[in-house]
């Protein structure tokens, strides 16, 4: 056993792990006989560049990744880019220099990644995109992309509104709080929503601006919306946190959220679900942040040189007030 384990190459070890052959035995005996794994020498090293800590979704996503890496016996080098692309590029270059085995990252914006991704490819370090994608034409720059279908989330939100406003006879004024400018979820949710609401010509987006996916941003931009638009019927916020920030602005303006203004958000994190169960929000399209376990599986596979699907889509649902009440008690994040 000792002999086998100490002579396995990184690639070979990854293959065995991926096949499930050593998955359980390794951690059990590794610490006792050679101590090799405890020293980290045989562990897959994953460099992960996170967007930041802008929302409840992001916190849950970070926790999921850290927990899953620990459970999978993967050594995680974690970097928080504080929502700046330049920090992410710097972190990726550091990972390349440190010769990590695999790089994964959640790109803050869609554009501008080709150069650094080419550097990773030249260094023969496989890259996995998580949560958000890039707009690179060269698909060989990364192995796979795991995350949600953001266009669908926007579309589901819009379709629900179309359903609710079927009997509306006059204009329904919508304001939109966009996510981080240039990010995939902001671009795609906006697109899906616009496509869906086109089914009812009464539905009109009268103002649309970025609140950067944060509560503070949501509050501030909603204040401006309320000042500039005397009649707001609906708020579509690209995430729960901006919706939660907007609640404060709406209440301060003397309006009742969920009644005077119908509120639709995306994510379904705990605070958002609570607002929905309380009737302050009216509908949430879920976006799951629990990407850690699937990401670690993919890390093992690409490290072992196994082929992986180029797209791994997250499963999600939607919630009305009643569904939120039912789901809240067992909600994990
Ligand atoms: O919806 C938002 C977060 O990229 C899916 O980023 C993610 C989005 C999520 O800040 O809350």
From TrEMBL:
Domain called Periplasmic binding protein: residue spans: 47-306
GO cellular component terms given for this protein: cell envelope
Gene3D superfamilies according to UniProt: 3.40.50.2300
Primary residence: other
Subcellular location: Cell envelope
Keywords: Signal
A Gene Ontology molecular function term of the record: carbohydrate binding
Domain of life: Bacteria
Signal peptide, first to last residue: 1-28
Protein family membership: Belongs to the bacterial solute-binding protein 2 family.
Protein name: Monosaccharide ABC transporter substrate-binding protein, CUT2 family
Native source species: Micromonospora halophytica
């Amino acid at each position: 056993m000792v002999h086998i384990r100490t002579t396995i190459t990184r690639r070979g070890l990854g293959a065995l792990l991926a096949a499930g052959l050593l998955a359980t035995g390794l951690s059990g005996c590794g610490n006792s006989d050679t101590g090799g794994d405890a020293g980290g020498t045989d562990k897959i090293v994953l460099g992960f560049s996170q967007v930041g800590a802008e929302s409840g979704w992001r916190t849950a996503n970070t926790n999921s990744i850290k927990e899953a890496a620990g459970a999978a016996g993967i050594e995680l080098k974690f970097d928080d880019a504080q929502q700046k692309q330049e920090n992410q590029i710097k972190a990726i270059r550091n990972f390349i220099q440190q010769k990590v085995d695999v790089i994964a990252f959640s790109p803050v914006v869609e554009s501008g990644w080709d150069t650094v991704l080419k550097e990773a490819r030249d260094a023969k370090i496989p890259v996995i995109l998580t949560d958000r994608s890039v707009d690179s034409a060269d698909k060989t720059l990364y192995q796979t992309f795991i995350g949600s279908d953001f266009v669908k989330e926007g579309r589901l939100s819009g379709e629900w509104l179309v359903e609710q406003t079927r009997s509306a006879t006059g204009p329904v004024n919508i304001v939109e709080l966009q996510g981080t400018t240039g990010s995939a979820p902001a671009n795609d949710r906006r697109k899906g929503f616009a496509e869906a609401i086109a089914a009812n010509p009464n539905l009109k987006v009268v103002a649309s601006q970025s609140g950067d996916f944060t509560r503070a941003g949501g509050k501030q931009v909603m204040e401006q919306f309320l000042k500039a638009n005397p009649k707001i019927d609906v708020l579509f916020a690209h995430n729960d946190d901006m919706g939660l920030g907007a609640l404060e602005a709406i209440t301060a303006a003397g309006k009742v959220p969920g009644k005077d203004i119908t509120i639709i958000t995306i994510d379904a994190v705990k605070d958002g679900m609570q607002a929905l169960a309380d009737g302050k929000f009216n509908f949430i399209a879920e976006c799951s942040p629990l990407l850690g376990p699937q990401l670690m599986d993919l890390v093992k596979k690409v490290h072992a040189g196994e082929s992986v699907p180029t797209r791994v889509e997250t499963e999600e649902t939607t919630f009305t007030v009643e569904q939120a009440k039912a789901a809240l008690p067992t909600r994990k994040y």
